[in-house]
């Protein structure tokens, strides 16, 4: 089992347990197999938004908000607004403040979305630097 699959399984288990403690029935699950970096996760996100529009659920539980997007403040607020417009609350296991007043959510979400975007940029820079180093050393680069 890949470490990515183990991470997904661990997060799903924690989210299911959290839902049970809150007395929520688990409905459709949207597991992101692709990174939220550069919008590669859009298919699952669009499916969730479509199902929200159809009224299939009233709450989305996420491990952390950065699982929804790492594309910055505007993208994150847009996603959350789209869920709200469909009558769906988004709650994060890692960010307990998502269960607070909408005004506070928007403020803190903006801050955390910016952090997620910066972390994603730094990760990309580290990867590019590592690939350049391997190339300089004459080692294989890529698959």
Describe the fold and architecture.
The protein has 143 residues and is mainly α. It has one domain: Resolvase, N-terminal catalytic domain (Rossmann fold, 3-Layer(aba) Sandwich), CATH 3.40.50. Helices cover 55% and strands 6% of the residues. It has four helices and two strands. The protein has helices at 3-21, 42-53, 73-85, 102-136, and strands at 59-62, 89-92.
What's the CATH topology name? Rossmann fold
Question: How many separate helices?
Answer: 4
Per CATH, the architecture is 3-Layer(aba) Sandwich
Give the CATH class: Alpha Beta
* Name of the CATH homologous superfamily: Resolvase, N-terminal catalytic domain
Note the main sheet. Answer: 2 strands, parallel
Number of strands: 2
Q: Please, how many domains?
A: 1
* Class per helix and strand makeup: mainly alpha
Order of helices and strands: HHEHEH
**How are the strands of the biggest sheet laid out side by side?**
1-2
How many whole angstroms does the radius of gyration measure? Answer: 17 Å
The overall average pLDDT, rounded, is: 86
| Shape call | globular
Helical percent range?
55-70%
Distance between the termini: 19 Å
Low-confidence stretches are: none
Strand content: 5-15%
